[in-house]
Amino acid sequence: MAEFKINISDPTNGKTKQFVVNTDILIGKRIGENINGDLLGIEELKGYELKITGGTDFAGFPMRPDIQGMGRKRILTGRSIGMRQQPEKGYRRRKTVVGNTISDKIVQVNTVIVKKGAIDIFAPQEQEEKQQEQGESSSEAS
Questions:
Q1: Domains contained in the chain, number
Q2: What integer is the mean pLDDT of 91-114?
Q3: Neighbouring residues of 108: CB distance < 8 A, sequence distance ≥ 6
Q4: What end-to-end distance do the CA atoms of the chain give, in Å?
Q5: Are 17 and 33 in contact (CB under 8 A)?
Q6: What is the C-alpha separation between 72 and 65, in angstroms, rounded?
Q7: Is the residue at 91 inside a domain?
């Protein structure tokens, strides 16, 4: 089984949370595909639907949606994914990137929430603990 770090971003509030997952379900998926959160084996992600937006391999090379396959490629690129800043207009450089398909060499997978589940994964844990304590104390009072 492969181990992936799944970064889950919520576009409504701009927050991101990371989970570590041991699964082979992601291998063969491509950037732009939707995955069901139930299949990842994490209790908090039940009911979530996630869209794959990118990732990096074990050496830190970024995935690009326009490169087909699983392997690394050297491409000539201007200002885009894998290229930070141009020193002047029209500057291009040859960079190494990874294809758009997830393999066992991919370590980090970036996703965006398409559909939320029952549990809010971005809620602070302190608030959840306080709510549980209040629920217990109100049941004891009655």
A1: 1
A2: 93
A3: 4, 5, 7, 55, 56
A4: 49
A5: no
A6: 13
A7: no
> 3-state secondary structure string, the chain?
CCEEEEEEEECCCCEEEEEEEECCCCCCCECCCEEEHHHHCCHHHCCCEEEEEEEEECCCCEECCCCCCCCEEEEEECCCCCCCCCCCCCCCEEEEEECCECCCCEEEEEEEEEECCCCCCCCCHHHHHHHHHHHHHHHHHC
Q: In 10 A of CB 41, how many CB atoms?
A: 12
Contacts of 19-27 with CB under 8 Å at 24 or more apart are: 19/44, 19/45, 26/2, 26/102, 26/106, 26/109, 27/2, 27/102, 27/103, 27/104
Q: Is 17 domain-assigned?
A: yes
Q: Is residue 90 part of a domain?
A: no
**How many residues are there in the chain?**
142
pLDDT band at 43 (very low <50, low <70, confident <90, very high): confident
Is residue 132 assigned to a domain? yes
**In this model, does residue 138 exceed pLDDT 80?**
no
Contact in structure between 53 and 64 (CB atoms under 8 Å): no
